[in-house]
């Protein structure tokens, strides 16, 4: 049974397939589909591993349905036969814009600017934290699992985390899971610990985000050209961080060192991780205007007109990209479980705190006396 369907196929008597978004593999395909009753467009995900569909549906229904920066489920149906050994499931979700993997191939030299990457990473870490706050590890942090809002909309610079069919609860009945060696995930993006056989936990989602940052800035990772899992594992193990992060801000290597220093059940310091990227943003003197490399001319023009009208010294981001209109500002205070995540330099993330935390990480890795 394959998840690939012909254009025009009607799924569940309700959704007509209009175009292909992606064929992830033989099991999973995602389409743009139209509700034949309302004519509303959705993203329709078909998965022949219908046990994963059940699990993903539960996450949408009970764990992440009210989280900002995550799509909402519209509909779900599972078909199975022959004592449930065969079948497939379908989930209709909010239609979003293209993935980061698609966007990076549209820009010059197939890599993002430093400004855009820093803005993305602030949102990526916030999305991961929000998921972890619900006791879920994603286990698939990679560029094709992050999408922006629809192009031309107020959310076209907002980053959404998608695809939870490999996700898993890391706290069960109030107790952190043990290491059972269930090291699933795409080998190109998993952490070094997973490559060595450990169970994915919070630290591994965060390290994968570090690989994402490097990929967005360079357009490549040294092991992406390898086809055998053993070659990928060896590539990660032998590639020195200094070489991996060559010509990149030193905060990125600090970030990865920090992630690798975390213990199996240890909670990451998300505020510290965000501030590492914020520190680079401020040092480079970038304007927090909410614009990214893919921003449409209309959004760029609106931002420029606002700057002319109000002056360049004003906080354009807070006016032009407020929470009220649903748009995204790269370093806005986002929310997790209803609480604002303040990303300004606070007492908890002051320059002194950043320096102290960084020195602790480097000492732990025996990089400085």
Automatic annotation (TrEMBL):
Residues 310-337 are annotated as: Disordered. Residues 310-324 have a biased composition (Basic and acidic residues). Residues 1-281 form the Protein kinase domain. It comes from the Eukaryota. One of its GO terms (molecular function) is protein kinase activity. PROSITE patterns: PROTEIN_KINASE_DOM (PS50011). This is Protein kinase domain-containing protein. It comes from Cryptococcus amylolentus CBS 6039.
């Amino acid at each position: 049974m394959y998840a690939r369907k012909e254009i025009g196929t009607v799924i569940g008597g309700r959704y007509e397939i209009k175009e292909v978004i992606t064929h992830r593999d033989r099991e999973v395909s995602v389409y743009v589909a139209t509700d034949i009753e309302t004519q509303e467009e959705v993203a329709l995900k078909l998965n022949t591993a219908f046990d994963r569909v059940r699990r993903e549906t539960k996450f949408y229904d009970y764990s992440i349905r009210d989280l900002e920066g995550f799509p909402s489920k519209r509909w779900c149906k599972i078909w199975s036969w022959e004592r449930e050994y065969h079948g497939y499931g379908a989930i209709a979700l909010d239609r979003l814009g293209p993935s980061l993997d698609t966007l990076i191939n549209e820009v010059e030299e197939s890599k993002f600017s430093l400004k855009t990457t820093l803005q993305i990473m602030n949102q990526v870490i916030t999305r991961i934290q929000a998921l972890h706050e619900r006791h879920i590890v994603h286990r698939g942090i990679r560029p094709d699992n992050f999408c922006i809002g629809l192009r031309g909309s107020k959310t076209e610079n907002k980053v959404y985390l998608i695809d939870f069919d490999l996700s898993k609860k890391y706290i069960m009945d109030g107790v952190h899971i043990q290491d059972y060696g269930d090291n699933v995930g795409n080998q190109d993006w998993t952490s070094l610990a997973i490559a060595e056989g450990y169970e994915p936990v919070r630290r591994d989602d965060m390290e994968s985000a570090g690989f994402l940052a490097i990929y967005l800035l360079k357009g490549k990772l040294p092991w992406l050209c390898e086809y055998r899992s053993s070659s990928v594992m060896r590539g990660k193990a032998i590639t020195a961080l200094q070489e991996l992060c060559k010509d990149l801000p030193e905060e990125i290597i600090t970030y990865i060192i920090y992630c690798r220093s975390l213990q199996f059940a240890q909670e990451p310091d998300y505020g510290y991780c965000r501030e590492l990227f914020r520190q680079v943003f401020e040092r480079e003197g970038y304007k927090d205007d909410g614009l990214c490399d893919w921003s449409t001319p209309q959004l760029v023009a609106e931002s420029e007109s606002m700057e002319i009208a109000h002056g360049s010294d004003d906080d354009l981001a807070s006016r032009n990209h407020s929470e009220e209109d649903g748009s995204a500002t790269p370093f806005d205070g986002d929310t997790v479980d209803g609480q604002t995540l303040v990303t300004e330099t606070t007492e908890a993330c002051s320059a002194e705190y950043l320096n102290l935390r960084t020195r602790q990480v480097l000492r732990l890795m025996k990089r400085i006396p």
